[in-house]
Write a structure and sequence with these properties.
Blueprint (H helix, E strand, L loop, with lengths): L1 H10 L11 H46 L8 H13 L8 E8 L8 H6 L15 E11 L3 H7 L6 E11 L4
Antiparallel strand pairs: 1-2, 2-3
Helix pairs in contact: 2-3
Length: about 180
């Protein structure tokens, strides 16, 4: 009798579509890579925003030194800016990849935009702090490399995992 019951059970087709056992594991396996990539992308974007804010803060402090004619004893302006960026970014930024360009202009109308600075390669690192009452553009550029290659290829404009961060400020020199 057991053999006959077993044979009947074997021939009976199972309805696999109605079974839900193990479906959570399969759903997790399908969705976890996308969720992980999203979490990493959020971290990358947050780090970029933080470093951008730190670059803005560092360029404001650097322009304060230049505008008033002050210098830190024993340091060049590039070293001062690198130290300020390092201080504000908790060493997320490699100071050797920073480029500080200081350029005087005769008027506010002649100052280029950030996109013009990048397209015309005006971020050369030349530093001319100008004269008294002259308009000066301070530009700080940094080549950010993404921590993860996949996210970097998705988020970088050129698709190579690099993003050029630029911070700039315009000041008018004080009498010094």
């Amino acid at each position: 009798m057991n053999l006959l019951y077993w044979l009947l059970k074997l021939n009976k087709k199972k309805d696999y579509a109605s079974q839900t056992q193990g479906s959570a594991v399969i759903e997790f396996a399908l969705l976890s890579p996308a969720i992980l990539l999203l979490i990493i992308a959020i971290f990358e974007i947050g780090a970029i925003m933080y470093v951008r804010a730190a670059l803005d803060l560092a360029i404001l402090h650097a322009s304060r030194f230049g505008r008033t004619g002050q210098v830190v004893t024993g340091q060049t302006s590039q070293q001062t800016v690198a130290e300020l960026v390092s201080l504000y970014t908790f060493n997320l930024v490699d100071p050797t990849k920073l480029t500080l360009t200081v350029t005087p202009y005769p008027s506010f109308a002649s100052i280029p935009t950030n996109s013009q600075v990048l397209s015309q390669h005006l971020n050369t690192g030349a530093q001319n702090f100008g004269e008294t009452d002259q308009i000066v553009l301070y530009t700080l550029t940094y080549d950010w490399m993404f921590y993860t290659q996949w996210v970097g290829n998705l988020l970088s404009p050129s698709g190579n995992g690099h993003l050029t961060l630029i911070a700039s400020t315009i000041v008018q020199n004080e009498p010094f």
